[in-house]
Design goal:
Number of strands: 0
Structural class: mainly alpha
Distance between the termini: 84 Å
Order of helices and strands: HHHHHHHHHHHHHHHHHHHHHHH
Shape: globular
Length: about 550
């Protein structure tokens, strides 16, 4: 008896938790299971336990458990029974009405889409037919063509054009009628409509989002320069043409922006990469470029060594993330250049090594020095069309100028990044003095400056501004004494206060963080950056020489 008692006691279980009972989990079905709506689908022995809190649940013996779960693995008529029971609870009229609405809406959407595609296709075909007609009018052997048409040797203009220049589903560009797919013109038209959304027009470059465009008022493709801009360009050329460039005058002239035509040589001079003496520049360039490629030969093969493979792996991961919206930076040859630049810099600066964010700092130099060799826009430019020597020069010049920049802010990237910590703290103190409302608003919702301003300091606002604005900003940074290490603090303060209205309108932590990490600057250009720099200069003039002014 005692054994039987122990056995019964051993098999006492909660019926709601044993295998075979239905345990619905909210969210496991779509829509979620509703016990009231689906009550008839639950067997009497498998009902959900009552939701009375704190009430002890009834225990059961093994025999009762066995009877409850005896059908758990049965198959057969029970399935049909469950389906029949479910059908009784469904209102057939409601189901049919809902289904008809879904079908009707889907049919309308399909019809609208088909009409839009056909309209666009007809417009494209009309344009191409006009071009073909113009070309045929210019041909001298028109009479011969008419004879061949009479003999049935040529197809209609529509089929002829399609066989010459239409991309088909396999991605080929059909060059002759022998390669064209066989089918009626209507079938071809339907195929065109179906594929219209999957392909772009021939010879049309990909559309660059506004945030990724790098054009300013001095680039090609924009209206002619104003008289003031032309005058400024002449001043730059005169200053640079002298045997010894006056760097102080060049800084004053560059503070308000540098014309694209003279930006490469100006950046090299202001960064200290080139000497002011014109006669020495060419020899210095040759020596520095040879020195850089000597580093490549000496160090680059060690990238897969145990000591360096982690550094190279991180660089290799970060490079494709650099300006992903600009096709220029997605080219394999450009990414290889960036990998070499960053790896060599990391090897030569073991105190900091490579830190995420440094990869962004290469891009402005690379773009500016590409402009030294091309006239067209750079976003879609294929660098493989440049001569090898030009590419090597761009790579070496970008490396040395980035190194000059990082020499002034290397404490931003050493262990624990103390430079950034100090700058963020200084930013908080400065904002508390110049706009107490913004400062208190962020304190109220517990927004720490480090949570959003760390990236501003680590990437020099490159993640917050379009690249065209960064290049304009760096014109002034190059001209300003300690521009990257000191003046940048005041630019960040002016940048934060610039969004005062939007910040004060946010009423919670999440809203503030989303705003501060996604500020709407995609439409910004030179004008907005100039206003920002002017405000930053005002703040610097008021606080730079009197740091106690912004300390409480």
């Amino acid at each position: 008896m005692s054994n039987e008692g122990n056995k019964k006691q051993f098999w006492k279980r909660n019926a709601a938790k044993v295998p075979g009972s239905i345990q619905h989990v909210y969210g496991a079905q779509h829509p979620p299971f509703d016990p009231l709506l689906h009550a008839n689908l639950i067997k009497a022995g498998n009902r959900l336990p009552p939701a009375t809190p704190g009430k002890p649940k009834k225990a059961t013996t093994f025999q009762e458990f066995e009877s409850i779960t005896s059908d758990a693995w049965d198959v057969g008529d029970d399935d049909d029974e469950l389906l029949a029971m479910a059908a009784k609870n469904l209102n057939i009229e409601v189901v049919m009405e809902t289904a008809n609405k879904v079908i009707e809406n889907h049919s309308k959407q399909q019809e609208r889409q088909r009409q839009d595609d056909v309209t666009e296709l007809e417009q494209t075909e009309e344009d191409t037919q006009e071009e073909v007609a113009e070309e045929e009018d210019e041909e001298e052997d028109e009479e011969d063509e008419q004879v061949r048409v009479a003999e049935g040797d040529v197809t209609s203009p529509e089929v002829s054009f399609a066989s010459l220049s239409s991309p088909y589903a396999d991605g080929r560009l059909v060059k002759s009628k022998s390669e064209a797919p066989i089918g009626s013109p209507k079938e071809a038209e339907g195929e065109h409509a179906g594929l219209h959304r999957q392909r772009s027009l021939p010879h049309r470059p990909p559309i660059i989002p506004l945030v990724a465009r790098m054009a300013d008022q001095n680039t090609s493709g924009t209206p002619a320069m104003t008289e003031r801009e032309a005058s400024r360009l002449d001043k730059f050329k005169q200053l640079l043409a002298g045997p010894n460039t006056e760097l102080e005058e060049l800084r004053k002239l560059s503070w308000s922006g540098i014309p694209r035509q003279v930006r490469p040589i100006t950046w090299k001079l202001l960064s200290g990469y080139l000497p002011a003496n014109a006669e020495r520049r060419e020899s210095v360039l040759q020596r520095k470029r040879q020195e850089y490629f000597g580093f490549i030969q000496q160090y680059y093969d060690s990238r897969n060594d145990e000591n360096h493979q982690d550094t190279y792996r991180q660089i290799h991961i970060d490079i494709p993330r650099t300006n992903p919206l600009i096709p220029l930076f997605q080219q394999a040859s450009v990414q290889e250049i960036f990998e070499r630049i960053l790896f060599i810099w990391a090897i030569r600066h073991p105190a900091s090594g490579y830190v995420q964010g440094i990869n962004d700092l290469v891009t402005p130099f690379f773009v500016v020095y590409v402009f030294e060799y091309i006239e067209e826009e750079v976003e879609n430019f294929d660098v493989s069309s440049l001569e090898e020597e030009a590419l090597r020069n761009i790579e070496a010049d970008s490396f040395w100028c980035m190194s000059k920049l990082l020499d002034g802010i290397q404490d931003n990237y050493t262990f624990a990044q103390p430079g950034i910590q100090k700058k963020v703290q200084a930013l908080e103190e400065l904002v508390s003095r110049i706009d107490e409302s913004v400062h208190r608003h962020m304190q109220q919702y517990e927004v720490e400056y480090l949570q959003f301003a760390f990236r501003w300091m680590n990437n020099l606002l490159m993640r917050e501004l379009p690249l065209r604005c960064t290049i304009r900003l760096w014109d002034t940074y190059q001209a300003e004494p300690e521009g990257f290490s000191h003046f940048h603090l005041y630019v960040c303060a002016a940048f934060l206060v610039r969004w005062r209205k939007e910040i004060l309108e946010e009423g919670d932590f999440q809203g503030l963080m989303i705003l501060l990490q996604n500020l709407p600057t995609m439409h910004w250009g030179n004008e907005e950056v100039s206003v920002l720099l002017a405000e930053a200069y005002r703040l610097k003039f008021a606080f730079a020489d009197a740091p106690n002014h912004y300390k409480r």
